[in-house]
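Researcher: I'd like a structural prediction for the single chain below. Treat it as a standalone chain; there are no partners to consider.
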Amino acid sequence: MRLSHPTAPYQGIPPQDVFFAASDRFVQMGLGFVIPTMNVEMYPDRPLEIYIYIDAQPSARDLLLGALLGRAEQMRARFPGVPGRIYTELASSDWEMLNFYSRNGFMNADAQEEYLMPVPVAPAQTPMGCQLASVPLSSPQEQLGFLQRLNAFRMTPITHDFLTLQMQQPYFMALGFYRAGQPISEMLMTGVTPDSAALVSLYTRSEHRRKGIARALILSAAGLLRERETRQIVTQIYSRSQAQIGLVRAFGGSRRRIVTILPSIDIA
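Model: Treating it as a single chain, here is the predicted structure.
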């Protein structure tokens, strides 16, 4: 079995972070890559997130995993003393790969879960000194700025193509609280039918958390949803984020299904 790097970036990933596996007869057996991110906003206790991906024949998986973990160790060395994790993301039904990662020391300590919650009926109150407004999205620059702010608080980024598509949906909504023109908290919701709205993303800047601002923004959006006769909200959250779980359950949300599982290894 042989490993090699591509000669150019692969899907935007630097060549040194991508590995191809081939047999001794140069038959391609699969590939793997690693992507590091520093996610201070979402997981301040473990901000260094190193994502690995493997798509290979069973005979090549161990070799690729070893190469990716070695590359992850090099990445980790750039941030001495910063805690984090090495993780991947798998469909909840992919038992073969779940067993593979479990056999290699990965723990199933996080998952992306889908929750349903009724549209709240409590009255909304705008936080003191804030203004409720639609997110300005009239220009590409404003759209990219909105995405940049949302993605700073996410595990997986929202693309501009996705935002453009959702802006065409009949029940699209982007709201935020602003103070002196600066965003404090923003949300993205969408939907094709009035029955159910999808809460795609919601964030509150770290210095304004634990003040009920996210709750107030959801209640503000709920008032608009009730006018559209929307009955429920569907959203996806991470089981590792107690703040996300607590917020959704405070509104009567219940878990409907596990979307993906994120096997991981913690790094100190």
